[in-house]
Structure to design on (70 residues):
């Protein structure tokens, strides 16, 4: 399938790039924590993809739809 034919394909890759940069930033920012490995592996690791790649885009779409209805 041609990527240009997929609606929002570039936006999806933008979210993945944003998530990658944010995750690396969180990893570097949490280096000063004593239990850095614990925080990254058990807290940030499982929650991050769910929040950044599902919850945030879903909330943004809902807000945009609600704004468009007015």
């Amino acid at each position: 399938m041609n990527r240009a034919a997929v609606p929002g394909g570039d936006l999806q890759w933008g979210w993945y790039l944003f998530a990658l940069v944010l995750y690396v930033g969180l990893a570097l920012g949490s280096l000063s924590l004593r239990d850095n490995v614990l925080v990254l592996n058990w807290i940030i690791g499982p929650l991050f993809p769910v929040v950044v790649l599902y919850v945030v885009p879903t909330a943004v779409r809902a807000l945009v739809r609600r704004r468009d209805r007015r």
Observations:
- The chain has one domain: 3-69.
